[in-house]
Amino acid sequence: MAKKKEESKDLLENPEVLQEKLEGLESWAEKNLKLLGIVVGIAILAVGGYFGFRYYVDQQDGVAQKEMFQAIRYFEADSLNLALNGDGNNLGFLQIIEDYSLTKAGNLANFYTGVIYLKQGKFPLAIYHLEDFSADDLLVQARAYSLIGDAYMEQKKYDEAARYYDKASNYKPNKEFTPTYLMKAALAYEKLNDVEKAKAAYQTIIDTYFDSSEVQNAKKYKAKLEVNS
Questions:
Q1: Which residue from 188, 181, 142, 145 is spatially nearest to 164, judged by alpha carbons?
Q2: CB 80 within 8 A of CB 112
Q3: 218 by DSSP, 3-state: which?
Q4: What is the CB neighbour count within 10 angstroms for residue 120?
Q5: Exposed site from 2, 32, 163, 197, fewest CB < 10 Å?
Q6: Using an 8 Å Cβ cutoff, are 150 and 162 in contact?
């Protein structure tokens, strides 16, 4: 501490010492000026590149949304192959995914594609595309988890089905859809002969979602498990 005070005193009272310090700082700046310039340049390029990239993606998303309009109409009309592969003039979901993978439209196309493959009984492909989909909204992400669970149930992979139904029920829980996901989870656990977890899922509906349409079924199936266990 005494040494630091002495140095500070020298700087204040001795101009020569101050001059030496300043010269040393100037020398350091001269030696490192090129490096500082490179660092600043990289930072500017990074910021500019990010905003340029975001602008490009936003522009591409606008194009993709327009391209996907007809595919959605085919999907809603249950013309699933046309929705998936296009009609020669309009792109299908698969091409949207390939051409616009970085966009919101490309992401949503994965959801539609997963649903189509699930309807067509192509369960591994359904899982692949639904797992590639992501959203932060209240409903669709949980729905995607539930559909993945359905695909695993169809393949009799009940452990994976239960895992995804649990993910669906734990994602932003709400009284409209969460009870349905819990019922599916309970069924998967019953298939696994995991009675306690099945009963716990039913009990959550009874305790938390007592005004839902699923509560009577939850009570009935839980009572049946308790009689048989």
A1: 145
A2: no
A3: helix
A4: 13
A5: 2
A6: no
Output helix, strand, coil percentages for the chain, rounded to the nearest 5.
80, 0, 20
Tokens of 187: 């069924």
DSSP codes, 92-104 = -HHHHHHH-TTSH
> In sequence order, what DSSP letters do the residues of 177-189 get, joined into one string?
THHHHHHHHHHHH
User: Token pair of 88, please?
Assistant: 């020669």
The pTM for the full model equals 0.76
- Asked if residue 133 lies in contact with residue 118, where contact means CB atoms within 8 angstroms, the answer is no
Tokens of 154: 């169809």
Q: Which amino acid is at 226?
A: E
pLDDT in tens, 83-92: 999 999 999 9
Question: What are the tens digits of pLDDT across the range 102-126?
Answer: 899 999 999 999 999 999 999 999 9
Q: How many CB atoms lie within 10 A of CB 22?
A: 10
For the stretch 21-46, pLDDT in tens is: 555 656 655 656 666 566 556 655 55
Place of tokens 């393949």: 155
Taken in order of first residue, the domains within the chain and their CATH numbers are: 41-134 (no CATH), 136-229 (1.25.40.10)
